[in-house]
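Backbone-to-sequence.
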């Protein structure tokens, strides 16, 4: 059998390699085409100073009169303990060294910043002396850290207790007013322990789309919130190329009966208006809804160029590097869309946001628990 399998594997790898070369060539042609198309806009943007204007406006509140805490405008780095960062390959959704999504995100080689959640945090802090928050799907605890830093008493909820505790050890909690409580059980267990209406705020960033039954979890979060309590969430837009690919992938896995790690793949795919209806149907009022990550950066560059390289070219290069004992990093793909270029393309995403908003990649939503939601 091995004698038969080895030639078959070799032929398969040769075909994949040929296809990878073709894809790489086409991607290079596409990159050059996109660059030439955007070049006049890049030059015009530099002359108009678009990028600097946008970076300044990102830090300004869109609603005057609502105070911002000074430290929330610059809180972009966590302070870490002396724990060594070992076995990083086993960390899932690792955002420890990124900015908290309460304030923005560093993705697609662009430093995105927003004040949507910051304004609401300031409101909660001004109304309550001892605000309590639940971080649902806390993951690497990056957002739990910032909430604790702002004086919230936080319960960090996630599935994997061992991983949650490993992340916990990475931060220096001693400098904060209080450290979060780690909770790795079901939400209804938490509800029985603390009682209904125990929290002023709930956050769920990049979580709800991973759930097979999101309505049940959203309802449980509503039960944990006080009447009028706020719920911050970030969910993707199914119109983006990445979400279309994720949807195709999960459908393909289902057809083949391939198992997946619970909580890892995207399971929910909705447009911005569909997300609003979903939350309204589950007892929430939408207070704010903004879009982030424009389609020029997200779809044209990272989608059309990054996805083919990641799917077809990168696996072949990894195998070749392993066979020939060469050092290889998937970071070579990032060279197709360097930060200096993406920041300038992003500026034009912002210019055309009024018309392109339905195609932006992320929904940033502030919800309020309705009085009847329980």
């Amino acid at each position: 059998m091995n004698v038969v399998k080895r030639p078959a594997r070799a032929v398969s790898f040769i075909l994949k390699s040929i296809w990878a070369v073709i894809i790489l060539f086409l991607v290079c042609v596409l990159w050059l085409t996109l660059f030439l198309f955007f070049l006049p806009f890049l030059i015009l943007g530099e002359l108009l100073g678009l990028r600097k204007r946008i970076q300044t406006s990102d830090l300004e509140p869109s609603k005057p009169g609502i105070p911002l805490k000074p430290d929330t405008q610059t809180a972009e780095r966590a302070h870490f303990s002396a724990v060594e960062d070992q076995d990083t390959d086993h960390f899932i959704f690792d955002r420890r060294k990124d900015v908290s999504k309460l304030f923005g995100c560093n993705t697609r080689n662009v430093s995105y910043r927003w004040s949507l959640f910051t304004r609401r945090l300031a409101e909660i802090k001004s109304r309550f002396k001892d605000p309590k928050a639940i971080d649902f799907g806390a993951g690497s605890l990056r957002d739990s850290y910032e909430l604790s830093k702002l004086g919230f008493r936080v319960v960090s909820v996630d599935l994997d207790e061992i991983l949650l505790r490993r992340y916990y050890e990475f931060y220096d909690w001693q400098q904060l007013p209080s450290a979060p409580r780690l909770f790795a059980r079901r939400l209804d267990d938490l509800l029985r322990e603390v009682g209904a209406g125990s929290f002023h705020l709930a956050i769920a960033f990049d979580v709800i789309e991973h759930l097979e039954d999101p309505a049940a979890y959203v309802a449980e979060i509503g039960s944990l919130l006080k009447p009028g309590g706020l719920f911050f969430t970030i969910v993707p837009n199914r119109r983006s190329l990445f979400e279309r690919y994720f949807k195709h992938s999960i459908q393909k896995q289902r057809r083949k009966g391939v198992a997946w790690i619970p909580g890892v793949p995207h399971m929910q795919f909705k447009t911005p208006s569909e997300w609003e209806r979903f939350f309204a149907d589950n007892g929430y009022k939408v207070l704010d809804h903004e879009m982030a990550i424009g389609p020029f950066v997200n779809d044209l560059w990272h989608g059309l160029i990054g996805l083919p390289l990641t799917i077809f070219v990168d696996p072949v290069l990894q195998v070749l590097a392993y066979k020939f004992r060469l050092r290889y990093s998937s970071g070579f793909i990032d060279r197709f869309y360097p930060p200096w270029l993406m920041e300038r393309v992003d500026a034009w995403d912002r210019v055309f946001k009024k018309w392109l908003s339905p195609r932006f990649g992320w929904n940033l939503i502030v919800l309020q628990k309705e009085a009847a939601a329980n």
